[in-house]
């Protein structure tokens, strides 16, 4: 547990499911104030809000599309109006879809870039602006992917968006370090989230992915949430501009494991 996170205000985009939900739950356990962003009106975040309250944290839900400038501004305004501050911004919302690169339409390309990269940019920009205005030495965490460094055929738009997040994170970290604002990324590997549920429910497909993970298992959303609270806490006070790979070693060339190659 990180005592310094108690009473801190965090915005988490795309927090209705998957990694975002796990991070919201963990920050609630740390007794933080959590702004839960969700995209669709069909997503019910009230049970998550209630759970956060049961742990002694506070939470509100705010619907919004992170690719829309006005909606991201609304998130920051909600944090200020309800909790009086914004200390931590987590740009987690993201989408993917498989398309052979030669068939990738401009519409598909733009949709993924708009949500994954432009959405993260807008979250970073609005958070930095708020932190500068209020003299807050805040923390920004961007959720990237192992595919910021591992090429991924048929997911050109997704890999490009995550590569962009890497450089955006590093640039912002360098630019705003003198103001005490720390900017880092987390790059998850294969994690058992709803977006992967169908694939991992198939024993053969699951095994094929596990072969790519030196630790030998599919990660849990809670393991990514643990990385997020560490980066948000004072325990990581001398850390900025990094990508923290939480991937079970996936980026370490597992085909060479055991002396092969």
TrEMBL record:
Gene behind this protein: gdh
Keywords per UniProt: Oxidoreductase
Top-level taxon of origin: Bacteria
Entries under CDD domains matching the protein: GlcDH_SDR_c
Name of the protein this chain belongs to: Glucose 1-dehydrogenase
InterPro entries with a match to the protein in the record: NAD(P)-bd_dom_sf (IPR036291), Sc_DH/Rdtase_CS (IPR020904), SDR_fam (IPR002347)
UniProt xrefs under Pfam families: adh_short_C2 (PF13561)
Lineage, highest ranks first: Bacteria, Bacillati, Bacillota, Bacilli, Bacillales
Similarity field: Belongs to the short-chain dehydrogenases/reductases (SDR) family.
